[in-house]
Amino acid sequence: MRLNGRKLLPFVLLLLLCIALGAAESKRYALVVGNADYSVSPLKNPVNDAEAMAASLQELGFEVTAAYNVKTHQDLAG
Question: What residue ranges do the domains of the chain occupy?
Fold first, then answer.
């Protein structure tokens, strides 16, 4: 069976609607880590950059977990 463009359009629109509704209902999570406190050659901006990224992601609807200057995986796990 071969569909022409006019017959295919409703199926494409339905597919896009389903994708949009699914995306609107799902929660979005983000983990942002900014490490600057290195023993050798500490960095200047990673914490500021991570804070800005976390704020931007929150504005986009993400539930953000942010961690700064994490030393061990236990620190990250909280």
Answer: 5-77
